[in-house]
Design goal:
The complex is a heterodimer of chains A (about 200) and B (about 160). Chain A is mainly alpha-helical and about 200 residues long. Chain A has helices spanning about 10-20, 25-45, 50-65, 75-95, 115-120, 125-145, 145-155, 160-170, 175-195. In chain A, helix 2 crosses helix 3, helix 4 packs across helix 8 (about 160-170) and helix 7 (about 145-155) crosses helix 9. Residues about 100-115 of chain A have low confidence and may be disordered. The chains are: A mainly alpha (about 200), B mainly alpha (about 160). Bound molecules: zinc ion. Zinc ion binds next to helix 1 and helix 3 of chain B.
Chain lengths: ~200, ~160
Amino acid sequence: MEPYRAELDAQELAWIQAAQRGDREAFGRLVERYQQRVFAQVFRLVRRREDVEDLAQEVFVKAFRAIRGYNFRSSFATWLSRVAVNHCYDFLRRERSRPPAYAVSAGGQSDQPLDVVDRLESSEQDPERQAVLRDLVGKLLARAPADDRVVLVLKEIEGLSVEEIGEILELKPGAVKVRLFRARKRMLEDWRNLRQEK
Amino acid sequence: MRCKDARAILIGNEADKASAALLEHVAACPSCQAYARDAEGLRGGFRAFAREAVPEPSWGFAARVLRRLDELEERGRRANFLELVGRRVVYAAGVLTLLLILALVLPASGPLRGPTTAQLYWAQPDATLVASNPIFPDETGEARDSNRLAPVVNSTEGKQ
Ligand SMILES: [Zn+2]
């Protein structure tokens, strides 16, 4: 893999190296640079607005404690994503230890206006359809096992490449593809079940 | 092409690169048509989801992270101090307990223990006995000489 250092901007490199020596001020600059990205990632993974700030703060605390181990082989953004994803994984697993994970009946969602999706199938930009689709995918992701959810969010929502996801999850691209395929398959089954129930 | 293979492509990573064989199968298979429609629906759902507004960090977030780091470090220092003190208390208590156990368990005499006061007291008469032994004064040369000279002086005085 091509080292990230070459294309790293000098300012960021200086901040990272200073943070590795324990300089908090320098780390604060990195927080300012990446906070939005971490917020988005955490929100998409956990889907709970009220928990995002606390989780993002914990991600940066973990990152500061681990930054000496960052070796510039991947981009700092990718390394930070790894910290964030692992932290959200733990959070999701803790949360998931209560309800059953997947393929549960969509009971209690009878007000889900799935017919809107069919009715508006041709008009992708329709705000009503957008909202329905978004809620539907949100529900499906919330029901998905943590492994599926993480890989789908990184690929389908964040738009990362298989290689980048591999770096974040420390998996070979082939293994990422397999996980993605299975996750998509399971989610599509759930999507179809939801529509048939309707 | 079988339905299973067609569906694997439809949800695969290269779903957009549809081959002629796939298109042909889907066109002729209503079940796979429905599957393809659902797969496309889900993809649209992901796109809609990706466009959703995400929460923004509130003002001063970075400063709060740094403050949190300070708090955690302070807490760590305090915990270390308490742990150190606690460990010392435990060590001291351990040593005291050990001493107490030794005092209770070990016999009153033996190689590990010196004579008691009582033993020293009862040992004293023996020491006096040894000190008053009549052999001992004779062993000092001075005493012997004075004893020997005395009769000589006395005999000279008697002659004069
Ligand atoms: Zn078919």
